[in-house]
Amino acid sequence: MSTSRTNRQKVAAAVRREEVIKLRLEGHTIRLIASHLNCGLATVKRDLDQMLETYGETTDAMTIQYKRVQSARIEELVKGLWAKGKAGQVGAVDRLVKLFERQAKLLGLDQPAKVAPTNPDGTLPYEMTDAELDAEIKRLLSGDT
Questions:
Q1: Distance CA 9, CA 32 (A)
Q2: CB distance 56 to 63 below 8 Å
Q3: For residue 101, what are the CA distances in angstroms to 6, 75, 91, 98?
Q4: What is the CA 21 to chain-centroid distance, rounded?
Q5: Residues 6+ apart with CB under 8 A from 71
Q6: Distance (Å, whole) CA 71 – CA 104
Q7: Could you tell me the pTM of the whole model?
Q8: Residue 64: pLDDT above 60?
Q9: Most CB within 10 Å of its CB: which of 32, 37, 48, 120?
């Protein structure tokens, strides 16, 4: 029984992703990983992002270790740029913002807040009747707060 080309590609991609994360944990740069695996930089970056999304909320040891290593690396880079950023050097500020964005993504800090309107005691979904809505609109337009 032969396997389809698509299945072989999926297996090869899964094996590559495991190797990407292993090499990254060992401290290799994305460029070196791409060269070692004979693939593009974008492929390595995509594999790393996919691994984070796939395992982001699990207790997978490699993912946790990867997050720790990457966070520590980001902190080291921030230390080196902080004084320049505080001095107002635009390039350093730009790099700091990008580092903070990457760290927030890595740690899952930028997840949107879920807001569901409820009644004042928080027990039921909040719904206004048409009369209540009309009265609230009139109150807001009149300037009464």
A1: 22
A2: yes
A3: 35, 12, 15, 5
A4: 16
A5: 103, 106, 107
A6: 9
A7: 0.43
A8: yes
A9: 48
